[in-house]
């Protein structure tokens, strides 16, 4: 071990992603991640339950951002307006400085069946958090569930657009555009 360096969590995340990209997710061990980060396995396990959690550790933050924005939306906001505020709030987690890391993370997730399943579970959990936050605003169950599902589709679509290397728009802008497109699509169904 060299001299102490700050941000062990970030160093572990960077080391893990680098190794996943270089050698594959399955071929990378916790010991290799810790070594690459200049830390011990024990330090790794202080920050993450396992190597999979390196890729999914931000879920609590996303859930909190969504929930806080929905609950904090103006009282006059419709359920979809509250969802829109929540999606825009996610731009805190998806700033331009995180884009390349997230793109690499997505390539690792998409290449591994178990990780894709975990990503779907994450999406389901975020959808449930949005529905719960809408219910806390007094929105009836059916409307809360439908708005959260629309929010989930908007979130996944905006996220996919944001990680696309051909797209350099900000996440908040993409979220607004996507939700507007979904609103127009549902109006066209009438």
From TrEMBL:
Residues 29-48 bind DNA. The keyword Transcription applies. Residues 6-66 form the HTH tetR-type domain. Keywords: DNA-binding, Transcription, Transcription regulation. The keyword Manganese does not apply. This is AcrR family transcriptional regulator.
């Amino acid at each position: 071990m060299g001299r102490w360096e700050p941000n062990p969590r970030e160093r572990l995340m960077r080391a893990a992603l680098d190794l996943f990209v270089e050698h594959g997710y399955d071929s990378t061990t916790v010991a290799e991640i810790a070594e690459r980060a200049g830390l011990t396995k024990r330090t790794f396990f202080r920050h993450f339950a396992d190597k999979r959690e390196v890729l999914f550790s931000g879920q609590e933050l996303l859930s909190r951002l969504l929930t806080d924005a929905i609950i904090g939306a103006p009282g006059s906001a419709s359920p979809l307006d509250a969802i829109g505020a929540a999606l825009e709030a996610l731009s805190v987690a998806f700033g331009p400085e995180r884009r390349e890391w997230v793109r690499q993370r997505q390539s690792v997730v998409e290449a591994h069946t178990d990780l894709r399943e975990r990503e779907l579970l994450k999406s389901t959990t975020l959808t449930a958090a949005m529905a719960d936050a809408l219910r806390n605003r007094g929105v009836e169950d059916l409307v809360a569930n439908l708005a959260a599902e629309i929010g989930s589709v908007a979130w996944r679509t905006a996220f996919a657009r944001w990680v696309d290397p051909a797209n350099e728009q900000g996440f908040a802008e993409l979220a607004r555009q996507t939700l507007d497109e979904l609103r127009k699509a549902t109006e066209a169904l009438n």
